[in-house]
Amino acid sequence: MHNLLPGSFVFWKKKRFVVEDLVGFDEVIVRRDTGTKKFVAPVSEVTQVAEAKSSRFIHAENADQWRDAVDVFRLLRPLLEKESHCKTAADVDAVAKQLGLSRSTVYNYIAQWKASEKLSTFMRKERTDKGSVRLMPAVVKILEEVIQDFYATAERPSPTATYDEIKYRCTKANLPAPGKTTVVKFLDRQSKRKMHAKRYGTREARHKYEPIHGHFPGADFPLAVVQIDHTPMDMIVLDENREPWMRPILTIVIDVCTRMLLGFCITMEKPGHLNCALALVHGMLPKDEFIKKHNLTQPWPIHGKPRKVFVDNAKEFRGSALKRGCEQHDIILENRPKGLPQYAGHVERAFRSFMQALHRIPGTTFSNTIQKAKYDSKKRAIMTLEECEEWFTIFITYRYHHKLHSETGYPPIKLYQRYILGDDEVPGIGLPAPMPNADTLLWDFLQPFERVISPMGVEIDCIHYFDNVLRPWVNAVDPEDRKRNRKFIFTRDPRDISRIRFYDPDLREHFFIPYRDRTRPPISIWELEAVKRELKLDPNRQVDEAVLFEGYERMRNREDASAKATTKERQNRSRRKTAQKLASQRPAHDPHSPSEQPSNPSLQGNDWADKADDVPDFDIETM
């Protein structure tokens, strides 16, 4: 996928269009690729046309040429939009002067654009043999061997000594020796950082070739690099009965270039792969409906697939779920290196800015016991989890994104706008392309399971699932080992394990598989684990599906009957309501239909949108 720029091909209302222009963050002007009539299309409704992999402009090495092509297009655009009889030689000469080209070249550009209407028309053509060395394969092999075992060593021989060694080995092998200039060019083609590391050491290479401390490498445009992390929020939230509960966990995804908050998730669960998935998916999807859902008017325009996600070394970031989801969507997942200051701090400083605002809300726990002193956080708590999430949404969209950042010199949303739409100094990179299959995107980042399909269906954690779509695969044989049964890939949402997602390798399609016994109530994985712990106390009871759900019913009745439930029991009640809510939102008539669009837990109730001015002021720390 590529950013939406003038000249991009998109699908809208099942028809193919060409993007003519961008209208802010939310809309694009398009026209049919076979006509001239123009329309205004919401960005959230368009999808990109799949480009051939051979398209010249999609390769990373041509990024500079692509930007140059965009600049050429912008200068040529007034001429391209004029009818032929309206273009004068003076008009063409004026544009040619701006581009530093001849009049004939500009006319050629116009003709090529009319033929293809692709921005790649304006890209510089490269020689196909550029950088190649025309030598016999045996000579090339000698060059490569000498570079690896002679030049790239701690003794650091000079290029002249390297040339002498190559000439010696070629003579010994009765091969014509290449000229010294050819050898020098061959050396220049090697990775300078790799050669420096082998000759001078890794630390010296890092110091020489990595960016200066204080700048995050690669974070040169929006969504180039994002950071994700968790922290307990400095406040106590109330349960649904407005009794003091506990501190929620905040997970954020921050865009390093602009400091925009890409997405977030607030839960009562300890940090894990689900928190990461919810926050990352919330960031990747457009937030128009999310904002409307809470009756807010301030836009939250950032969305799209990040190129690289930096995480710390905690175990929840090392799991297979996040890694698998990133691989599936061509996102680079990297751990934050230790001891390198340019990689650290952005997300932590953002947390400090966010917590600073929370310290002015009743129920805050402050940052430490000295600040808290004798303040009774539980007694003064005023917000439920849903209200806390809604407050945080208002805080981000109305305050944080519009506050001047001392490091960048711009409010995050203004810097984002500058990079996306461009200005007199910076050409815009275009709007991020909407994510395809948004309704099921979350499932790509959930924990995968491999299971055999038996006549009883699929068993995961003592619970059976079945649907007719599994019948062709019952007791299927592994094609690579005929003595074993074939294993298939399943995923599940920990918040509601009443269904799992199955990938059919023949149809290359996903299907949702419900409980085999569909009378069972929807439950979460945490409730299931709690029931298992209870049942372990009785060693005489054999754990099976019927016993598990019987134990679940008993625990639920006990919690509902408690006048003042414990924190754990209240958490179980909250989990149960979440599972029931997710189950009720899915289409009842079609168990294979896509899941509901993932988003942060619902932020309902209250009139926070009318109280945006009550969100406390704060300072953004230097990042």
What can you tell me about this protein's structure?
This protein is α+β, with helices and mostly antiparallel strands and 623 residues long. The chain has four domains: 9-122, no CATH class; 137-209, Orthogonal Bundle (Arc Repressor Mutant, subunit A); 225-421, Nucleotidyltransferase, domain 5, CATH 3.30.420.10; 438-585, no CATH class. The protein contains 19 helices and 18 strands. The protein has helices at 63-81, 89-99, 103-116, 137-151, 159-172, 180-188, 192-200, 202-209, 273-284, 288-293, 320-328, 346-358, 369-372, 377-380, 385-399, 412-421, 525-536, 545-561, 567-585, and strands spanning 9-12, 15-23, 27-32, 38-42, 47-48, 225-232, 249-255, 261-267, 308-311, 332-335, 448-452, 458-460, 463-465, 477-478, 481-485, 487-493, 496-504, 509-514. A five-stranded antiparallel β-sheet has the order 4-3-2-1-5, with no helix packed on it. A five-stranded mixed β-sheet has the order 8-7-6-9-10, with helices on both faces. Strands 11-16-17-18 form a four-stranded antiparallel β-sheet. The protein is globular.
Summarize the structure.
The chain has helices at residues 63-81, 89-99, 103-116, 137-151, 159-172, 180-188, 192-200, 202-209, 273-284, 288-293, 320-328, 346-358, 369-372, 377-380, 385-399, 412-421, 525-536, 545-561, 567-585, and strands at residues 9-12, 15-23, 27-32, 38-42, 47-48, 225-232, 249-255, 261-267, 308-311, 332-335, 448-452, 458-460, 463-465, 477-478, 481-485, 487-493, 496-504, 509-514. By secondary structure, the chain is of the alpha+beta class.
